[in-house]
Design goal:
Layout: E1 3-11, E2 23-33, E3 36-43, E4 46-52, E5 60-68, H1 70-79, E6 86-95, E7 98-105, E8 113-118, E9 132-135, H2 144-149
Antiparallel strand pairs: 1-5, 1-8, 1-9, 2-3, 2-6, 3-4, 4-5, 6-7, 7-8
């Protein structure tokens, strides 16, 4: 079964900027309950339907993703997906040989910036870039599907926590 092994962090610095422009992404959810989410995503010139299963609360979850016609994705985003849609710009940044995806959220989640890295196995060593803070992999509030019902942008009622709220020695993989 295909799986996604991903770790997610709040972004606290700006040093990741400076690369090529990011790609606009719009995504919506057809279903998000009972441990299964069904997502429609438009990313640049392509579109996908993705089904994700429930993991163990850690970085591993079953994931099935299929490319679909852009026109059909646009119709589903416009008429079938729950509101608000997730709007973001995705930037790709290489750090220590690993590809990081930095998402700058817009819309109801404006101001939120998250970084994700996909791994080959759950115990894979990871060199954290200096611009990431608290790890939020296991915090369900930071799943994109949860950001529909509970936005975490600067105008939301739910406070975001950055690395300034977490002592340096308690950060995952912290180094001097």
């Amino acid at each position: 079964m295909p799986v996604e092994i991903e770790r997610k962090f709040l972004v606290t610095g700006e040093a990741w900027r400076g690369g090529p422009p990011g790609q606009r992404v719009c995504q919506g959810y057809l279903a998000s309950d009972a441990g299964v989410t069904v997502r429609i995503r438009r990313a640049g010139p392509k579109a996908y339907v993705t089904i994700k299963g429930q993991g163990d609360g850690g970085p591993v979850r079953p994931e099935f993703e299929y490319e679909i016609p852009v026109e059909e994705a646009e119709q589903m985003l416009a008429s079938l997906c729950r509101r608000p849609l997730i709007e973001k710009t995705r930037h790709e940044v290489v750090h220590a040989g690993q590809l990081w995806q930095v998402d700058e959220f817009g819309g109801a989640n404006a101001g939120l910036v998250l970084a994700e890295v996909e791994l080959d196995h759950p115990a894979e060593e990871l060199a954290l870039p200096p611009w990431v803070g608290e790890e939020v992999t296991s915090d369900p509030r930071y799943r994109n599907s949860a950001l529909v019902a509970g936005p975490m942008g600067t105008g939301s009622r739910t406070p975001r926590r950055g690395s300034a709220d977490v002592p340096q020695d308690q950060r995952h993989g912290a180094t001097d």
